[in-house]
Amino acid sequence: MTAQTLMPPLRNPQLNWVSVGFFTFVHGLVLLTPWFFSWSALGMFLLLHWLFGSIGICLGYHRLLSHRSFQVPRPLEYAIAIIGALALQGGPIFWVAGHRLHHAHTEDVTLDPYSAQRGFWWSHMLWLLYPQPEFFNYEEYERFAPDLARQGFYRWLNRYFLLLQVPLLLLLYLGGGWSWVLYGGVLRAVCLWHSTWFINSVTHVWGYRTFDVPDNSRNLWWAAIATYGEGWHNNHHAYPHVAKAGWRWWEVDVTWWAIALLQSLGLAKKVNLPPTL
Asked: Which of 103, 237, 269, 274 sits most deeply, having the most CB atoms within 10 A of its CB?
């Protein structure tokens, strides 16, 4: 992927007020959670944060679809992709294309969608509020995930991922009322957004470096806890196609445990392992 394959970037990206309104509204709903607390709602929050975060985003969107660091049967791959779509972080083609561009042009101020060189808040969330068309228009970004764009299932999921929130929120309401909706739906989405965004922002600023890679990616223990292993970001940038992010004994990688379980069950094949340090 070279600079010539992208549209010329906007020098002065425009604030998208629809995005601002959406994120402000959802964050604002979090303020209601103290009045709807229940232990079952907290349990639902923790369960869905892990399911949509670790299995859907980290294992599914990231290590499976973006990097193809292992393989699973197609029906299981599709099921995991649906779980990722339920995380409310965009469709699979959008997410994968953006992440592949991030690796192809890490920290480039124009070609990396969430370049840390444009500042902490840009890499954390402002890139979503000032969407640049070369990263947000389907006709542009789908070229960087052609393996997904060729499949009708992924084109459908990329277009309609937002509608999946309707049956999810309905099931939460039927299971536990507004308490489950706010904790399992709203608070879970907001916390999962920020934990995912931490990988774009804090792990390009703080932490230690095991590998001398040509970017500022770092391993950060608390980001790894918040993201089920993704915080070992320097390891990942050194070997992006390896399925395991935490390499040393203290680098806890919860998502890897799930991949290892799938492998032990014969469901994960061609698992790329790290070289011996």
From this structure: 237
